[in-house]
Known about the structure:
311 residues; Arc Repressor Mutant, subunit A; D-Maltodextrin-Binding Protein, domain 2; five-stranded mixed β-sheet; 40% helix; elongated
Amino acid sequence: MNISKIDLNLLIYLDVLLREKNVTRAAGQLNITQPAMSNGLKRLRSLFNDPILVRTSDGMVPTERARSLGPAIRKILLDLEETLQNEEDFAEQTSQRVFRVMASDYAASTLIPPLLKLLNKKAPHIIIDIMTPSDVTFHDVEAGKIDMAINRFEELPQSFHQKTIWKDTFSCIVGTKNPIINNFDINNYLAADHVWVAKTGFGVGVGMDTTNNTSLGWVDEALSKLSRKRNIKAFTRNYHVAMQIALESDLVATLPTRSAMIHKDDNKFKVLPPPFEIPAMELKMIWSPLLHHDASHIWFRQLVIETVESL
């Protein structure tokens, strides 16, 4: 194979095809026609003497040869992108860039407001498009469709860049008319009814398995280690909904402290420390290697960290 005769576009085509596993979607990603993408696949097959993608009952699947080429092709393209990256500083005062950020309900309510306040001072024309975990997938982040995802993650693809934003403890929030506030110990906590709240990761959620304590998250795992179990009356994926339920139905909501402290000055709520130990949770931001060296993205990541340091 004579490297001087290789069309660099073919490597870009291969990288996108391996991510999308679909000619039509790959063409859309590259903003070219489907026939042009099909022709690119034909040329890739000739170049590597391999089918690259084969049709199966599960759709188009990369061949073993194509899968083995994937990491090397990605590294070549990232290295080239870094080499060609414009070294000029990002002009934040005049930029009208839109940053698409997937943020959990927890992250959106605790981090985004102060981030927007700082953003308005430094870059008044920049817009943030806030998306929910149900709106996107890991694939969207990897492909650079989403600039950043901010959430709690148990497992992440190795290709992603990541940074811990903060660690947070847990607190309990109840209505001030709830009699439990007079003696908030472990026994009364377990005797009370609870609202469960959490949402980790991506994609459309599924119903909860109420028989499996260890699948319910940090609070219930901590109780499991004490051989105890709380009585959950309602499940929600929204922290503000959980707090409203706690206020109006005498249920106890146990949630990250930063969320609970949003209502610390509201005389209808009482924020209490949990009567047992719950390990701290970790909030992270993650982003695609395709965006890692982009000047505007570097600036935005630094703005997020500056926001966190100011809190």
